[in-house]
Design goal:
The protein is an all-alpha fold and 172 residues long. It has one domain. The chain has helices at residues 2-11, 14-40, 47-79, 84-109, 117-151, 155-159, 168-171. Helix 2 runs antiparallel to helix 3 (47-79), helix 2 (14-40) runs antiparallel to helix 5 and helix 4 packs antiparallel against helix 5 (117-151). The protein is elongated, with a radius of gyration of 18 Å. The model is unreliable at 7-11 (pLDDT under 50). Residues 18-147 form the Hemerythrin-like domain. This is Hemerythrin HHE cation binding domain-containing protein. It comes from Saccharopolyspora shandongensis.
Length: 172
């Protein structure tokens, strides 16, 4: 039976789960970008629904990063002090992403009922910035932390999945 338990542990390795969450967040951002493009092209969601979609995405990304900052990163820093600089850099990225999310939420919170080119340019610029920093952040985080997370055994994380490993499907 030990072989079965080891196989299940490998299948549910925390680093692999983190990659799955990153893939899901990338997909959610792409969906938001598509909805923004549709809105500014005069088709798609009404402005209030677009704002709701943005808030949902922003909340999921914030929950993920807050979960890392408060849950995963302290555990990793304790067990792997050599990664403290990496964790500090990742937290700095989280702050930058939060700032962009705040800008995006403000822009989408003030959307005109009729799309206009100036607002479209501003929203798309924020989304481009968010996409760029998210992608570099995720790649760096995966490069530096996946093997460490996969080697960790934190029973509490298996019993009650922490926020940094949750997707929308987990909320249901």
């Amino acid at each position: 039976m030990a072989g079965s338990s080891e196989a299940r542990s490998r299948l549910t390795a925390f680093g692999n789960q983190l990659i799955e969450v990153h893939v899901w967040l990338r997909e959610q951002l792409e969906d938001l970008r598509d909805d923004v493009d549709d809105y500014f092209d005069g088709k798609g969601l009404p402005s209030r629904d677009l704002r709701a979609h943005c808030l949902s995405f922003c909340s999921a990304l914030t929950r993920h990063h807050t979960g890392e900052d408060r849950g995963a990163f302290p555990v990793i820093a304790d067990e792997h002090p050599e990664l403290r600089k990496v964790i500090s850099e990742l937290k700095t990225d989280h702050n930058r992403i939060d700032w962009i999310l705040g800008n995006l939420e403000k822009l989408l919170g003030n959307l005109p009922e009729t799309p206009d080119p100036a607002t479209a340019a501003n929203v798309r610029a924020e989304l481009e910035g968010l996409s760029a920093i998210m992608e570099t952040h995720f790649i760096y985080e995966e490069k530096k932390l996946i093997s460490v997370l996969n080697s960790m055994n934190v029973p509490g994380w298996r019993e009650d999945k922490p926020d940094f490993l949750l997707t929308e499907d987990d909320d249901e």
